[in-house]
Design brief:
Low-confidence stretches: 230-241
Radius of gyration: 33 Å
CATH class of the largest domain: Mainly Alpha
CATH architecture of the largest domain: Up-down Bundle
Strand content: 5-15%
Oligomer: single chain
Shape: rod-shaped
């Protein structure tokens, strides 16, 4: 090590030798980014001798705890714990034991920066996707809002990828989270395109199976007023066949618009449940 020759060893009458000198040791530690930015890394430092065996040189870890009071704090990492372990290894070439002392340094990432600047904004931007289902079709902004959210999430994904060390052994859960959100945005875009298409179908004939099998059940579930009977809601009707009769008396344009509204309301429910469940799963596996 650099600088060892400038310091003297202290030899005591009991045979113990203290050799204290300052130095800088650089080590390569494997990085596991699976739980990024809530990850904890472990770096090991092994001290031993290849020249002298255990009968000639014995290495003992200090009994006193490691003092970290003089260590300067880091903005991204902190050291919660350091473990010390002594090992005695016997190699096949030699009968003598070779002792070593290994320090396991636990380095924990401070996630506040990433939570504040990446995770929370990404969840808030995704939550805006609910507005896509609340916007009226006549506004003309439903599909463009979903596309804008998708582009914003793509930018956040690039920011996270730029902060991560390249690794082919593990994929961070946060990347799965962003891919999950991008998938939801893609599905939402598809739904909005279908809703817009349904809304503007005009006087095209509505098939009977859509009237009886889709519009009536969705009206009952989503509390949407039935076309042709605006004075009451579907959920208050006791006779479903009366609802079907009201639907038959409605125009095709009203029916298509009603179908687009109930799909939007169903989308709000599914989108909210899926988003909350996805965030909970990602947080629980961190």
């Amino acid at each position: 090590m650099y600088g060892m020759d400038k310091y003297r060893a202290l030899v005591y009458s009991d045979g113990s030798i203290h050799y204290n000198f300052p130095t800088i040791i650089e080590v390569i530690c494997p990085i596991d980014v699976t739980s990024f930015p809530f990850d904890t890394q472990i770096c090991s430092l092994k001290f031993g001798s290849w020249v002298y065996h255990g009968h000639q040189l014995d290495i003992q870890p200090s009994q006193s705890p490691i003092d970290l009071s003089s260590m300067k704090s880091n903005v991204e990492w902190h050291i919660p714990n350091i473990e010390v372990e002594k090992n005695v290894v016997t190699y096949g070439c030699c009968p003598e034991p070779y002792p070593d002392v290994t320090f396991y340094i636990h380095i924990e990432r401070k996630p506040a920066y990433y939570v504040t600047n990446i995770i929370i904004p990404s969840i808030m931007i995704t939550s805006i996707g609910v507005l896509c289902f609340l916007l009226p079709v006549d506004s003309g902004e439903k599909a463009s809002l979903v596309i804008m959210i998708t582009l914003a999430m793509s930018v956040f994904q690039l920011l996270v990828a730029d902060k991560l060390p390249p690794s082919a052994e593990a994929t961070p859960w946060i990347m799965f989270f962003f891919n999950f959100i991008l998938g939801m945005s893609a599905i939402t875009t598809t739904i909005q395109v279908a809703v817009i298409n349904i809304y503007y179908r005009g006087e095209k004939e509505v098939p009977e199976w859509i009237k009886k099998g889709i519009i009536v059940p969705l009206c009952l579930m989503m509390f949407v007023k039935i076309p042709g009977n605006p004075s009451s809601t579907c959920c208050n009707e006791e006779n479903v066949w009366d609802l079907v009769k009201d639907i038959k008396e409605s125009t095709n344009t009203e029916l298509w618009k009603c179908l687009s509204v109930v799909i939007d309301r169903l989308g709000i429910l599914i989108f909210s449940i899926t988003l909350i469940s996805g965030c909970f799963i990602v947080y629980s596996v961190k």
